[in-house]
Design goal:
heterodimer; A: 697 residues; 5-stranded antiparallel beta sheet; 5-stranded mixed beta sheet; 20 helices; disordered C terminus; B: 212 residues; alpha/beta; 2 domains; 5-stranded parallel beta sheet; 9 helices; 5 strands; 54% helix
Amino acid sequence: MKDLAAPLGLEGLRSRSKTERSDAQFFDWRVASVALCVFVGYYFGAKVGFALTFHPHPVSVLWPPNSILLAALLLMPKPTWWLLLLAAFAAHWLVQLQSNVPPEMIFCWFISNSCEALIGAGSIRFLIGSPVRLDRLRNVAIFCFCGVFLGPFLSSFLDSAFVAMNHWGEGGYWDIWRIRFSSNVLAALTVAAFIVTWATRGIDSLRQLSRRRLLEGICLLLGLITISFVLFNGMVQEKDSALLYVPLPFLLWAAVRFGLQGATAAISAVAFLAILGVANGHGPFSEKSAEENAVSVQVFLIFMSMPLLFLAAIIEERDKAEEALRGRDERIGLAAESANLALWTIDFLRDESWMSDKGRELFGFAAIEPLSRELFLSRVHPEDREAVDAAIESARAASKSFEIGYRLLRPDGETRWLISRGRYVSNDDGGVRELIGVAIDITAQVRADLQLDLQREEMARMSRVSSMGELTASLAHELNQPLTAIASNAAAGRRFLAQGPPETKVFEELLADVAADARRAGDIIHGIHLFLRKCEGTRRPINLNEIVREVLRLLHSDLLGRGTAVQTELAPSLPVVDADPVQLQQVLLNLLMNSLEAMQSTSAAKRRIVISTTCEANSSVAVSVRDYGNGLPADDVDKVFSHFYSTKPNGMGMGLTIVRSIVEAHGGKLRAENVDEGARFSFSLPVTRKPETREGA
Amino acid sequence: MNKEKKLVCVVDDDQSVRRALGRLFRSAGYAAETFASAEDYLSREIFEGSICLVLDVRMPGLNGLGLQEALETRGACEQIVFITGHGDVPTATRAMKSGAVDFLTKPFDDGALIEAVKRALARGEEQLRKRRGRREARGLIEKLTPREFDVFRFVILGLLNKQIAAELHTAEKTIKVHRGRVMQKLRVTSVPDLVRISQRAGVAPAGDPAED
């Protein structure tokens, strides 16, 4: 800082920055070092510029100082600009004094030079904002228009005017304007672009390159320098201007493989060597006068570098977009994988399709099998296919999204439950361009739900069976009392008789008691009917086929457990009956349990039940349960319906009584008969009559 | 058949069962009383003779098993036949362990019930007789003086008068007098009768550790 502060007379400033630390942020070492760089750069840039000045015009072929100042202004925050301008001014003064330029001219030139940098930096910063990064086509375009064209264009008027005003040099106003404009354009294109690009990305970006890329870059640079040196510095004797295309492959190589950093470096190298050659009178630009040669090399370099910068920007932009896309794809892929999602797209225009690996695995598609709606539908469970197709079709017709749950029948026979969401993406002209979608595997969830349903059914069945059992038990207890009393009274009567002629009064009482108890027992039985009739409120029109299916579902595990096959012969169209579905389920459950128990000694091969429903003359509907068990006692088939009659060792003998009560409460009939190798129980219920039309009345 | 008093008591909350059973027992020649609950039975004055309870297990209030327990603590000698609508094994086991004569499930055969009642009454009589014998023997023994009681205990031990006199540090003659009085008071004429009375009353011979 000492070097900088001493010539600038900034001792006071420095001491203040030491004492007041809060103000020090603008004057920290970084700003100071940039200012120093500006000073040094401007100084040596001007030296180079002077070296490349073709007399008699006082304007050089390449004037780097302005571009160095421009780059510094672009890179540094606005509040520090004054310091950078001061540093530049110091360097400008120092270097111009050595060239015997009068002080007014020195000052005027500094005005025009700093105007150029300020116009460029100000407008670029206004349009791009901060920080200025030349990584997009738009930014490069703005840089080229404002920094490369507008700044030199406007300031050159000022510069020429100053030269004319001070009568410096010999050229005319427009000659000076043209030469200054082109030399500054060239400087901005090469020097400013190079500095901004490399300063914003840093040398660190080189370290991130792989060894191979680094080697490639070194080869490229060596090749380019060699070619350019040979071309522009007189190694080739031919002056054919077609030779100018020789560096082009290297320049394109740099732009395509190394982006803007490569392009700006290559441009700078070529520009430096070309101008050096011209200055020394070598190369393709040495045929005409020095002035004409200077114009030629400027035009050549400007029109070569401009498209190269744009090309590099476009390539970088595309790379970045690709990288972003790849990153997004990876994130989506990760999300899809972790959520068991199948992602897919079908592009109708390009006839392309894609599906995530997880999805192909889920659907059982081969890795490269092209997707189509037909292929997708072929995997959908046949029962769901129509609904899925309809949902997709309606979404396609309206160009909107669809969502549908369905089952998947995989080639390996496994069934999985999925939910698919899809969206048709429209073209600009309204046509369907693309179908994108996602499928979620919800099999585990559905299975859990099904399990829950099964448990619920099991519980419903248990409660139904046990409520039946409870009813039976309580009935048995209720009936026990009067029956015990009747039996005891009868026994007492016999004993009285055995002891001799009985007392009439005692016997009268006894018989009255017997009659009362018999009535009481009858009342209990009657109570079942009453109880069942009380449930009439819950009656509704039902189809007995439904009852059969329901009960079979309830008994499913029992039937499996007992290894019994059930065959159903259900009438296809059955008139409805008015009934309490729960009670009818109990009837059927009871008959089925009876059949199952009757077949306990039947061999497994013969063990089966046939359930059939029939419609009898449209007036009644019958359900029959036929088993292949031992059959009923041949002599008293009807006895099975009487109370306490049981062929089972542990049976209470109440089940069929209640079954009959229920059937009769519904106005139906229960029958039992022996058939070949078993028994058949059947009940019939009257068909609900349609309400009579009242119009006639 | 001895002429002891016998009574069958039916405890059942169901009136018709109660009435029918009462009638059945009367037809079989027993005196029968009926009670609607366990509490009703407990409030009846204690019957002196042999008594059989025909008891329903399930009753509102104190149930059959509860009544059985209550009677046990009262120290009466009722014999119990249980009848029940639901004969579950644990209940039956518990009732039988507590000394029930039988456990019958409704509906039951009348012959089986009467047979059970007969057994119960017989067992009750047996217990009553034992109890009565002890009470009588004790009544007689209580009339002995302490000295006579001591001599009584040595006699049933099988000692001769001379030996007893040595034990009690007195003259043989005195012992002979005491012995005569004991025989007279206990209304027996022989030593074996004397031993039988001591057994009925639960009096141990002298020197028996149980007596100390």
